[in-house]
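Hi everyone, sorry if this is the wrong subforum. Our group has a chain we'd like a structural model of before ordering constructs, and none of us has done structure prediction before. Sequence below.
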Amino acid sequence: MDKNNQSRHPPVLTGAEYQALATFRHGVRRYLAFAAAGARSVGLTSHQHQALLAIKTHHPAGAPSIGDLANLLLVKHHSAVELVSRLVKAGLVQRTSADDDRRKVMMSLTEAGEAILSALSANNLEELRAIAPTFSQLLQQLDRSE
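Answer:
Right subforum, don't worry. Here is the predicted structure as tokens:
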């Protein structure tokens, strides 16, 4: 959004739109709190859980590099290195060198990482299904208010 345009013509929101935004934020925070609690229950931080999911779902040309992971998680390269080091130490991720460039570090999940991610993902998907009707109703309300 253009900052200058925003200051010249601030949008006028209705009470229903403010309520929709508040309800949406609450739903997102509820889901994130649920996911973080699930991660903690298996000894992971939320970032570690997100890293496992990003490694599992990265598909362009195979395993992600540290740089890919940093981009996916919106963190600095050195933060991704530290995150991966902790996951390797926990036995959830393994590092390998890229075939085309031995300096490039690629990551993949170990069997233990796959098992933990599978359990967490099943629980998180169940929670998303539980809150999906709220988000669906919000979107319908916003469509009707336009």
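For your construct planning: DSSP finds six helices and two strands in the chain. The longest strand covers residues 93-97.
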